[in-house]
């Protein structure tokens, strides 16, 4: 019986490459004589090649070596390229800037009532946007750590005792990290400043410390001893904080007093070793922003504009103004940022805990439909709309607007949910994809 097989020059079968097909079967004992002419030819070619090479280089030809050439070395695989940590440069980060907190003094630009702070933290919690440490933000900004698509950083300037007495319990309750920016001449001083012990206690619960100058003066002012003075304001104050709290416990982050800086201050900050600088420009602290000129939303005690702006992200849906008006107890269905597996959801807002709603002024808008004929029941306080046309879009936004007695502006609640189109499609349970059923004739007709 004749078999075909592929063999190498040692007569062993091989799997691939340039192959010699042996046209007939043979046993091992007869392979060697057959191979001899081939081996002789190979040696001859090798020798001729070497002679030719030697002739080219005008050197005496070497005596050909008869030994078989060493097997070709397999080159090592290329070294693995270390790509470093993956980070998300598209992330949207809002840095919130607070100052003082008080339950007894009137609210102002600088002073926030703890109830308002709590409402804001509750809103952040419900929005599910994570609050991250400033140190994590720093790592992200310098390409060393990832951050989620959207995140919030909480900062408090100056070192007011209200941070410890009013805000710290709330931050702790919500588990939100925060950072404080201290200026040397106010730390541990009289009046309403934080003490070192209070700061240390807060540091043990997620508080980080950064620098806010030595004197809190406007650093852009001209003065005769500017160089020495700036040295003290930027470098001296940082050294003071490090000697007080430990080098590793002070962030290389500088908050400009009054948000004021110029090119000279930027140079000074870089020279002093600061990696981030916080301004008061109300904008997102995006990855592309210069590290020493980061935007920050200063949160005022009597106006929510900056807070609303800070909490407006691509995926954020609850309107902060609603939460700040005491509307945090509005249950929504489908839930905010939830996913439904129907194109015909019943959309509901339980407004029973909101007092004084004008029943005639309640409206609902649903993306794709515009204003919809929703039903508000003043007795139960429930508002609902049953979709009758299938939702076509994957993401659905809902806007409920209503007027409360005694309020100048209408309140709005905004939220969104999504439709799991894949599940509907693959399960075949999507009514929008089903053929219209043919009505069977009525009996007797
Ligand atoms: Zn300040």
Provide a descriptive summary of the structure in words.
- This protein is α/β, with parallel strands linked by helices and 445 residues long.
- The chain has three domains: 5-56, no CATH class; 92-315, TIM Barrel (Alpha-Beta Barrel); 323-431, Immunoglobulin-like (Sandwich), CATH 2.60.40.
- The protein is built from ten helices and 20 strands.
- The strands form five sheets. It has a seven-stranded parallel β-sheet with strand order 10-9-8-7-6-3-11, sandwiched between helices.
- A hairpin with an 8-residue loop joins strand 19 (395-402) and strand 20.
- The protein is elongated and about 75 Å long.
- The protein binds zinc ion.
- Zinc ion (ZN) binds at residues 157-158, 212, 216, 257.
Short description:
It contains 10 helices and 20 strands. It has helices at 31-56, 114-127, 134-141, 161-174, 196-203, 226-245, 263-272, 305-310, 320-324, 421-427, and strands at 5-7, 20-22, 92-98, 100-101, 111-112, 150-158, 178-182, 207-211, 250-255, 276-278, 297-298, 331-333, 338-340, 346-350, 363-366, 370-372, 375-377, 382-386, 395-402, 411-419. Helix 2 packs parallel to helix 4.
């Amino acid at each position: 019986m004749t078999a075909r097989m592929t063999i190498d020059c040692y007569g062993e079968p091989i799997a691939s490459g340039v192959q010699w097909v042996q046209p007939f079967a043979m046993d091992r004992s007869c392979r060697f004589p057959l191979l001899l002419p081939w081996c002789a030819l190979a040696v001859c070619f090798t020798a001729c090649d070497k002679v030719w090479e030697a002739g080219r280089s005008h050197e005496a030809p070497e005596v050909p070596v008869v030994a078989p050439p060493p097997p070709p070395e397999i080159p090592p695989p290329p070294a693995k390229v270390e790509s470093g940590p993956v980070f998300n440069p598209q992330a949207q980060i809002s840095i919130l800037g607070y100052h003082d907190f008080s339950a007894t003094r009137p609210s102002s630009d600088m002073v926030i009532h703890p109830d308002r702070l709590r409402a804001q933290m509750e809103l952040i919690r419900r929005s599910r946007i994570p609050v991250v440490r400033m140190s994590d933000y720093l790592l992200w900004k310098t390409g060393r750590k990832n951050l989620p698509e959207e995140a919030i950083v909480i900062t408090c300037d100056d070192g007011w005792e209200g941070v410890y007495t009013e805000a710290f319990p709330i931050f702790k309750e919500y588990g939100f990290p925060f950072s404080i920016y201290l200026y040397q001449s106010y730390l541990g001083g009289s009046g309403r400043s934080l003490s070192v012990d209070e700061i240390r206690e807060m540091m043990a619960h997620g508080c980080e410390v950064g620098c806010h100058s030595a004197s809190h003066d406007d650093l852009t002012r001209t003065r005769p001893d500017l160089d020495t003075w700036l040295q003290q304001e930027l470098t001296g104050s940082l050294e003071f904080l490090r000697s007080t709290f430990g080098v590793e416990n002070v962030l290389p982050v500088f908050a400009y007093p009054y948000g004021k800086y110029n090119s000279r201050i930027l140079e000074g900050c870089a020279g002093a070793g600061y990696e981030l600088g916080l301004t008061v420009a109300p904008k997102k602290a995006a990855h592309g922003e210069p590290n020493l000129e980061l935007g920050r939303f200063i949160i005022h005690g009597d106006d929510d504009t900056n807070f609303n702006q800070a909490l407006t992200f691509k995926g954020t849906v609850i309107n902060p103004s609603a939460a700040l008006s005491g509307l945090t107890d509005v249950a929504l269905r489908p839930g905010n940022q939830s996913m439904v597996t129907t194109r015909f959801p019943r959309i509901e807002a339980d407004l029973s805990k909101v007092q004084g709603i004008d029943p005639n002024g309640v409206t609902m808008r649903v993306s794709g439909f515009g204003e919809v004929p929703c039903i508000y029941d003043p007795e139960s306080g429930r508002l609902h709309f049953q979709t009758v046309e299938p939702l076509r879009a994957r993401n659905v936004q809902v806007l409920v607007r209503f007027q409360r007695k005694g309020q100048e502006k209408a309140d709005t609640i905004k939220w969104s949910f999504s439709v799991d189109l894949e599940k509907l499609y693959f399960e075949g349970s999507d009514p929008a994809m089903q053929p219209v059923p043919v009505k069977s004739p009525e009996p007797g007709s």
